[in-house]
Amino acid sequence: MTGTLTRLPGGGQQIIRQYTSSDTWTKQSGLKCVYVVAIGAGGGGGGGARYASGTLKTGGGGGGGGATASRYILATALGATETVTVGAGGTAGAAATTDTTNGGNGGAGSASSFGTWVSARFGGGAGGGTNTAAGTAGIGGALANCTPPQLPSLAGIAGASGGNVNGSAGSTTQMLNAAGGAGGAGGGGINAAGTTGSGGACSRPYNINGVQDASRAGGGAGTGAAGSDGLDNRALQIINEYNVTAQVTKGFGSSGAGGGSGNTTGTVAGGNGGRGGNYGQGGGGGGASTNGANSGAGGVGGDGLVVVVEYY
Questions:
Q1: First vs last C-alpha separation in the chain
Q2: Residue 132: how many CB atoms within 10 A of its CB?
């Protein structure tokens, strides 16, 4: 837990406490109210499939993004202490390490919460690649499962599906439209004709001025290239939107990209999916491979976050 003190106009002050691991919050003397933001952890990406040459081999799907939940709470309503729970990112879907097998499924993230007052839903884990259908996308954290279950809470964005050839890109458009954590991109596949695909491109976040970050535009391309990790160190837009004078230094990173597929000779492994950015972004899907080489593993989901802004 880290804390930052800021003097406010008129003689008041605020303290921002940022929790990246579970802890206990203690109410201090003179507290008037708190503003709490919680981000659920992102889901893990699925691993790519590994099958014989001349057959379809698909990439793993991208993990879903965690939701963001927030609210003001009067100090008089709070207990002397409140439990802070920070969700852990979903586990990466395993690579296929034996011939003629599907990729492993990514694990779901877990929720982040502040007592019973605020809870942010986690992103779902993605499906592994197969020889019949692309790895399924992880679902985004649903608004209905958040506390409060309405605005200003924000649903997470679903991941992208894995590819029969090229993996699907993570959603960027929704990130501009007041959404929670972004989903991961899908891993690349290999079709029956032997065409190898690239991993899907990362989602790219917008900063508080509406400018898109272009530094994580692409997924893994070609013969077994790994996907990019999601971005960290992004301003937490929702705190600024509610007139908190100091910024939290992380949040709303881009998702991890899917890995590129292996080639048709069975000597090159599929690319691994990228790690979901902190906080709450989905991991990328792993790329497929041909028998004789491992497929790519999915990327782990980004961890959650809880921020408590105290007003005195």
A1: 19
A2: 12
User: Nearest to residue 42, comparing CAs of 74, 16, 64, 72?
Assistant: 64
Residue 11 has what pLDDT? 65
Instruction: Write out the H or E segment, with its range, that includes residue 240.
Output: helix 237-241
- 144 φ/ψ angles, rounded to the nearest 5 degrees: -65, -20
Dihedral angle over CA of 128, 129, 130, 135, nearest 10 = 80
Structural contact between residues 189 and 167, judged by C-beta atoms closer than 8 angstroms: yes
Tell me how many domains the chain contains: 1
Per-residue tokens: 217 = 């535009």
Tokens 């809470």 sit on residue: 153
The first and second tokens of residue 18, run together, are: 């940022």
DSSP characters over 128-158? PP-SSSPPPPPPPPPGGGSBS-STTSBPPPP
The parts of the chain modelled with pLDDT lower than 70 are 1-11, 172-179, 204-222, 231-256, 263-265
CB atoms within 10 A of CB 164: 22
State the pLDDT at residue 201: 83
Decide if 14 is inside a domain: no
Q: What global pTM score does this model have? A: 0.88
**Does residue 13 sit within a domain?**
no
Helix (H) or strand (E) holding 237: helix 237-241
What is the residue range of 264's domain?
20-312
Stated as kind and residue range, the H or E segment containing 174 is: helix 173-176
Residue linked to tokens 């439990």: 83
Is 6 among the domain residues?
A: no
pLDDT tens digit string along 163-217?
Answer: 999 988 887 665 555 567 889 999 999 999 888 888 988 876 655 555 666 665 5
**C-alpha closest to that of 37 among 298, 259, 252, 271:** 252
| Residue that the structure tokens 């999915």 belong to | 298
